[in-house]
Every structure is written in structure tokens, then in C-alpha cells.
Write a structure and sequence with these properties.
Blueprint lengths: L6 H7 L4 E6 L1 H15 L7 E6 L2 E6 L4 E7 L21 E2 L4 H4 L7 E5 L9 E5 L10 E5 H19 L6 E5 L40 H12 L6 E3 L2 H5 L5 E3 L10 H5 L6 E5 L4 H14 L8
Parallel strand pairs: 1-4, 1-6, 5-7, 6-9, 9-10
Antiparallel strand pairs: 2-3, 3-4, 7-8, 11-12
Helix pairs in contact: 2-8, 4-5
């Protein structure tokens, strides 16, 4: 590798540009990580942050640049885009069109998509066919992988019609793994074990496991490979699978205070999905940085 992450260089390369992350809370974690990595290179009076509904915007004023995040956990429109009122069993996804979300994506010079976690709630997904605004009509049930494929194809078609590869770049970040069952990395002695109290990465001896659904990863690769506009894949899955020690565990802010019973057994409410900052998402951003500014060195990633 020729050089490490350089915040000043990245800001200079983003001068006059709009960088947009689109996806779920893991993508938002990567977005916030990047802001943390950049903000120290910007004087206090020359930066700002605002969040309105689904869109968050960080401005580097001296560079006339914005780094933004748009909340769309499954990329397509759903009836639970407000996660606070989400009920898993009632989820319905619109297969097409994508206008509700994608109108916010237009004009971005760098697009960074992700979508995986919210597809892992079951084997079946409800899809609304057609353009009718009534979310109760023409609903079909599909296997999660095929529904995921359908939505990714919609994203690719949008990219092909709205992104000029001469002026813009598109990336897709692969699955962020969870560590909710310690048996998956060979710990068969801890009943109900998860990432709680893990203080070191998973070793090579333990590393034959995988918590990520490989069928979903295959769908991602197959669909993105067919895009007529190049989509750079930032593969964070395997390297993150080692990091059972890097989650927020009991330090995530919860909707409600843990009960006495939960506090007596911290494993019962340990967050083994989201990542600490600084932490693993910083590494994701270093990979993105390399792919964005040093694409000729992709072979070392």
C-alpha cells in the first residue's frame, strides 16, 4: 500500500462535490465514522451538520463539499421507512418504482449504497407489485433472496439511467455481520453466548464459521456485475466477521432502560449488531478511500 487515509487529501478530492451514503443503520454508522475521520481537518467555523427527516448533511464549507446520509434500509420504498413504528411482521416492500427515495439521490457525485441487515428478519418478504399507491393491493410473498434480487435490479436500473460514470462513482458495501450466537465461532461451552464479554477478535482457528447469509452475498455479486455503469464493491464482510469484540454491546442507547433482570444478565441485551466508533467502520472507510482515490491498487484490498 502506498499511503494511509489522508483526511485533507480526501476533502480536497471532494471539493465541489456531493457524497451520499444510502442505506440502513450500518451504513449510517460508516457515514458517521467518515465524518469523525474528516472533521478534525476542518476549522470549527467551516463545518456544519443538520438532519431533516431521512436526510443528514455534513458540510465542509471551505471545500464546498457535502457528505450526506439518506435513510433507506431496504433501498426500495416500504411501509416502515420510519423505523420507530416498524413491525417486522407487517413489512411490505414496493418492488417498483423507486421515486420516493431515489429523487434524493440525483446529483450525487459519489454514491455509497448498502442493504442487508433488514432482509435478515425471515425467509419470506412481502412485495407490492406495480405502481399503485395503495400498499394493500397486489401483495405477493417471495423468498428473501429473490426479493433482494428484484430490489437490487431496480437500483441498478436507476443507476444506469441517472449516473454518468464520467462524473460520478457508485459503490456498494457488502454485508455487515452480526455476532449473536457464539456457537457459530466454536464456543459450544457458553450457553446463550454472544459477543458480550468478548475482548479479542476471532482467531484463525475459530474462523471457519460465517454468520452472513451467503446466498444474499451471491445475489449482490450477480446483480451488480450486470450493471452497465461500474459499481465498486467494498467487501467488508469477511474482515468484519473476525471482530466479535468490536460491537457496542451494552453501551448502545436503548429505547428503554434495561430491566433489573436484563442488568443481571448483560448478555440478554448486548448489542452484537452495531459497531463502536472509532472501530470497524473506520476500516470500511479506509477501504472505500482506497477504491475511490487509488483504484489501480484494488488488488491489495
Amino acid at each position: 500500500m502506498c499511503c494511509s487515509f489522508n483526511a485533507t487529501l480526501m476533502l480536497e478530492m471532494l471539493r465541489g462535490k456531493r457524497m451520499l451514503f444510502v442505506g440502513d443503520q450500518l451504513n449510517r454508522g460508516q457515514y458517521l465514522s467518515l465524518i469523525c475521520m474528516l472533521h478534525r481537518a476542518i476549522p470549527d467555523g467551516a463545518k456544519s451538520f443538520e438532519s431533516v427527516d431521512s436526510l443528514s448533511i455534513f458540510r465542509a464549507k471551505n471545500y464546498d463539499a457535502t457528505i450526506e446520509f439518506y435513510w433507506a434500509p431496504m433501498l426500495a420504498e416500504t411501509n416502515f421507512d420510519n423505523a420507530v413504528v416498524d413491525r417486522v411482521e407487517d413489512r411490505v416492500i414496493r418492488g417498483a418504482p423507486m421515486d420516493k427515495h431515489s429523487r434524493f439521490w440525483k446529483g450525487a457525485h459519489i454514491l455509497v449504497f448498502n442493504s442487508y441487515l433488514w432482509w435478515m428478519t425471515g425467509q419470506k418478504i412481502q412485495i407490492l407489485r406495480g405502481a399503485d399507491n395503495d400498499m394493500s393491493k397486489d401483495i405477493v410473498e417471495m423468498d428473501a433472496e429473490e426479493a433482494y434480487r428484484l430490489v437490487l435490479y431496480q437500483v441498478v436500473r436507476w443507476v444506469e439511467h441517472n449516473v454518468d460514470p464520467k462524473n460520478s462513482r457508485v459503490f456498494f458495501v457488502t454485508a455487515s455481520p452480526t455476532h449473536t450466537d457464539s456457537r457459530e465461532w466454536g464456543d459450544n461451552e457458553t450457553e446463550g453466548g454472544n459477543c458480550y464479554d468478548r475482548t479479542s477478535p476471532i482467531s484463525e482457528a475459530e474462523a471457519s464459521y460465517s454468520t452472513s447469509r451467503r446466498a444474499m452475498l451471491r445475489v449482490t455479486g450477480e446483480v451488480l456485475a450486470e450493471s452497465r455503469v461500474p459499481v465498486g464493491v467494498v467487501n467488508v464482510t469477511r474482515l468484519s466477521e473476525y471482530r466479535a469484540d468490536a460491537h457496542t454491546k451494552t453501551y448502545k442507547k436503548l429505547w428503554a432502560e434495561p430491566t433489573p433482570e436484563q442488568r443481571a444478565d448483560p448478555r440478554s441485551y448486548a448489542d452484537c449488531t452495531h459497531w463502536c466508533l472509532p472501530g470497524v467502520p473506520d476500516t470500511w472507510n479506509e477501504l472505500l478511500y482506497w477504491k475511490l482515490f487509488f483504484p489501480a491498487n484494488d488488488q491489495v484490498l
